[in-house]
Amino acid sequence: MLNQFSRTELLLGKTAMEKLASSRVAVFGIGGVGGYTVEALVRSGLGAVDLIDDDKVCLTNINRQIYATRKTVGKYKVDVAEERIKEINPNAIVRTYKTFYTPETAGEFDFSQYDYVVDAIDTVTGKIALVMQAQAAGTPIISSMGAGNKLNPTAFEVADIFETSVCPLAKVMRRELSKRGVKALKVVYSKEPPLTPSESDEQGAHTKRKTPGSTAFVPSVVGLIIAGEAIKDLIK
Predict the structure, then answer these.
(1) Got the DSSP string for the chain?
(2) Which of 67, 155, 171, 199 is geometrically suited to a Cys-Cys bond with 190, CB 3.0 to 4.6 A?
(3) What is the pLDDT of residues 51-79, one digit of tens each?
(4) Angle between helix 124-137 and helix 168-179 axes, rounded to 10 deg
């Protein structure tokens, strides 16, 4: 019997589709990268997804975030995402958290409940905490490195964090994870040197760092690569 996932099943097979339908993935950060990750996971037949993000859609999100439109400005991203997910697959189980993940809020989440974790947040402290919490629970995790200030979507690749180079965020993560005894972490990163953005009146909600520039075609590609890796790992 045909359904919305029939074309995917032609490639992955029935057993893989059943695995996806019974899997639960937590996506931390559903902005430019994480939003497209969620979109691809849900359109691939993922049965349950946890969405963690405390931000509301703003006007400057429209250039790159799949949940950002003129109609959704001012709404919580997780609420907009849940509504869209239900339009794609009414049977999907969606859990939303209007929470900014930090080492202080980490205790709100039980990683043993997840089959997979996606790190699509921006702060180094949060990313490190995600990795440590996932590894302590034995839950697979994939982490997005820097996607801002870059223009070449074809330069992104999947690698272990300790095999990365050039990317400034990956450099910091390598150092901090090494201090903590972490031996491996799957990441998506690019060797493209980041550009220096122009001055902006905008500032990130949770950081004092300079607002990065971004495009419609870089974060989306990173998000889709992450989704592909998650699906591949879930159906092994």
Answers:
(1) ---TTHHHHHHH-HHHHHHHHT-EEEEE--SHHHHHHHHHHHHTT-SEEEEE--PBP-GGGTTT-TT--TTTTTSBHHHHHHHHHHHH-TT-EEEEE-----TTTGGG--GGG-SEEEE----HHHHHHHHHHHHHHT--EEEE---TT---GGGEEEEEGGG--S-HHHHHHHHHHHHTT----EEEEE-SPPP-PPP-S---TT--SPPPP--SSSHHHHHHHHHHHHHHHHT-
(2) 155
(3) 999 999 999 999 999 999 999 999 999 99
(4) 50
**Rounded Cα–Cα distance for residues 84 and 69 (Å):** 12
Angle between helices 32-43 and 219-234 (to 10 degrees): 40
How many other C-beta atoms lie within 10 A of the C-beta of residue 204?
13
**CA nearest neighbour of 66 among 41, 32, 100, 95:** 32
- 121: its two tokens: 């947040």
Q: For residue range 179-231, what is the model confidence (pLDDT) as tens digits?
A: 999 999 999 999 999 999 997 665 544 545 689 999 999 999 999 999 999 99
Token duo for residue 62: 């429209």
Instruction: Tokens for 26, please give them.
Output: 């937590």
Contact 74, 226 (CB under 8 A): no
pTM for this structure? Answer: 0.95
| Distance in angstroms (rounded) separating the CA atoms of residues 49 and 94 | 5
Digit-coded pLDDT (tens) for 138-190: 999 999 999 999 999 999 999 999 999 999 999 999 999 999 999 999 999 99
